[in-house]
Write a structure and sequence with these properties.
Protein name: ATP-grasp domain-containing protein
Number of strands: 16
Radius of gyration: 22 Å
Keywords: ATP-binding, Nucleotide-binding
Helix content: 25-40%
Bound molecules: adenosine-5'-diphosphate, magnesium ion
Distance between the termini: 26 Å
Strand content: 25-35%
Strand order of the largest sheet: 15-14-11-12-13-16
Organism: Deinococcus knuensis
Structural class: alpha/beta
Number of helices: 14
InterPro entries: ATP-grasp, ATP-grasp_fam, CPAse_ATP-bd
Largest sheet: 6 strands, antiparallel
CATH superfamily of the largest domain: ATP-grasp fold, B domain
Order of helices and strands: EHEHEHEHHEHHEHEEHEHEEEEHEEHHEH
CATH architecture of the largest domain: 2-Layer Sandwich
CATH class of the largest domain: Alpha Beta
CATH topology of the largest domain: D-amino Acid Aminotransferase, Chain A, domain 1
């Protein structure tokens, strides 16, 4: 079988696999119920929520990474007749393996080329290449030692501006701190986790093994997350949500939707992606301008909020892939909504999980 499989109409529904991915993938799987696609999910953890959400599942061996993982996954897809893979684990590398998958009948719906995905993962390289006519960025520089931190501090210090740090490669705000000139006992006792004194930072950054870090001007205004779905550089839909202390608000922001179009085109994105902005707002200055923070070539952890705006992100992607998306009749984005997420509890059955796990892993190549 060749990649013709994707163009010849088949009697059976198309099979789509989400390989190991974050738990928000469960929401995408649920959103595909009744869509006509046959949804599969695989994960190393038999109790994972993505497997609980999917009608068809299999287990991945633990600890398999890189080319070996890609090769194992290609065979797993071929054995099950998977028509399209929405990559999670090793998604950068899987873009490189896409031709081999296609030969075996599986289209890899990679968000971008391997190089582009890696560029987006490195905040220093990304910002260096960023087109500030799309959205401005705050002043920033890099450091990787105490002496380069001190030099960066001197170079970026400005009256009325707080400086912040984060690693060039990070996720979930790991390593992000706003630096205060003096230790701030009040905010410490209030539970403020994202502040650190300049002196404590100097002590920390004297440690060996410091990775490349960014020092930046802190954006003090509202933060937004924009969830997007695109196909081959063309934006399908974008949902802008403003993060607040009491939930999130879906906003009507044509300027940020325009930025989403430009981003999709500039990086040739296909699939679900996300970017984050924060407003620059200075005391006494009423202007609030959204600045670019980062682009993630994957679904955000908060995608569920944006789905509440009436946008079925994975279905739009899959329709674009199979060529059945009606670009002139895209679903409207409902804006002006306040959205909240409720937690649910699920019973995980370890005995069943364990039994399946051993059986599947026994079948997997070493
Ligand atoms: N320059 C900045 N000014 C203010 N807040 C920032 C700045 N950079 C990052 N942050 C905060 O840190 C969080 C994480 O930063 P981000 O660039 O999104 O990295 P990641 O999510 O990959 O860890 C952001 O959501 C934002 O709240
Ligand atoms: Mg982020």
């Amino acid at each position: 079988m060749t990649s013709d499989r994707t163009t010849i109409p088949t009697a059976r529904p198309r099979r789509v696999l989400f390989n190991k991915n974050f738990s928000v993938t469960a929401a995408q799987i649920t959103a595909l119920e009744g869509s006509g696609f046959e949804v599969w999910a695989s994960h190393t953890d038999a109790g994972h929520g993505t497997l609980a959400a999917a009608p068809h599942t299999f287990l991945e061996p633990r600890g398999l990474i890189g080319d070996e993982y890609a090769e194992w996954l290609r065979r797993a897809c071929q054995e099950r007749g998977i028509d399209a893979l929405i990559p999670g684990k090793e998604r950068e590398l899987l873009a490189r393996h896409a031709p081999a998958f296609a030969q075996a009948g599986t289209a890899v719906l990679a968000p971008a080329s391997e190089d582009t995905q890696r560029l987006l993962e490195r905040k220093d390289e990304f910002l260096r290449g960023w087109d500030a006519s799309v959205l401005p960025i705050p002043r920033w520089t890099t450091f990787d030692s105490l002496s380069s931190f001190d030099a960066a501090w001197d170079a970026l210090s400005e009256r009325g501006v707080r400086l912040c740090v984060k690693p060039a490669r990070g996720i979930y705000a790991s390593g992000f701190r706003v630096l205060t000139p003096e230790p701030d006992l009040g905010s410490f006792l209030k539970g403020e986790l994202y502040q650190m004194s300049h002196a404590a930072a100097r002590e920390m950054f004297a440690a060996p093994g410091l990775p490349t870090m960014l020092l930046m001007h802190t954006l003090e205004g509202a933060e937004r997350s924009v969830d997007c779905v695109a196909w081959q550089g063309r934006l399908i839909r974008a949902v802008v949500r403003r993060k607040g202390p009491d939930g999130q608000r879906i906003e009507d922001r044509p300027d940020l939707v325009r930025a989403a179009e430009q981003i999709a085109q500039a990086y040739g994105l296909s699939g679900i992606f996300n970017f984050q902005t924060k407003d620059q707002s200075r005391p006494g200055d009423p202007a609030r301008v959204a600045n670019m923070l980062e682009i993630n070539a994957r679904a955000s952890g908060g995608l569920r909020y944006s789905m509440a705006a009436g946008v079925n992100f994975p279905l739009l992607l899959l329709r674009a892939w199979e060529g059945t998306l009606d670009w002139d009749a895209l679903p409207p984005v409902q804006t002006g909504l306040n959205v909240a997420e409720d937690k649910v509890v699920r019973v995980v059955q370890p005995e069943v999980a364990q039994a399946v796990s051993q059986e599947e892993v026994a079948q997997a190549p070493a």
